[in-house]
Design brief:
With about 190 residues, the chain is α+β, with helices and mostly antiparallel strands. It has four helices and eight strands. The strands form two sheets. A four-stranded antiparallel beta sheet has the order 1-2-3-4, covered by helices on one side.
Amino acid sequence: MSYPEPWIVLQHGAYVAFAFSVLLFGALAFRQILDNLELRRRLSGEDLMLLYSAPGVLLSLAGIGVTVIVGLICYNIEPPTVFRYALPLVGGVQMTQILLRLHFQRTRLRTLALVIRPIVRPGPIVIPYAEMTSIELISNMLWTTVRVTQGQGEAVAFRIFPFQRARLEQRLRLASSATIQSNHSASIR
């Protein structure tokens, strides 16, 4: 029995990945437009500092590694099939979409408010500096958790890389009158 040429199978697999990419990037654009409209509606000022989600970046890097390993396995199995050729391509498209999402959804310290743009929950969370009552910085091995409490005791948390901690703490100290608690140092205010 003769098998199709690997190049032909790869073309079919690439077409499947293209179809997935249209859906994934369309959803990404749609979510980005909705979030930007919501953010424009709420006055928060201009960007002062942008912060990536540390767990999101680390999980994405692990996902890229898994995608490469799956690709090496799939492309070395005979006979070639559309599924085995499309799987790593679709995984690569998905990881690209997730990395773009992480880039677009960075937490932002703005001139008037802190804007947290969750990756999986809808809409941006805007916390004006005047409404912050306390800020807690908790260091872990791979990231720092920042928990911001506002008004009625509502708390919102996000995670950043440890190397961003000092600069974030300094900016928050200048912008907000909230009590900042840190497990590295005593209470600052």
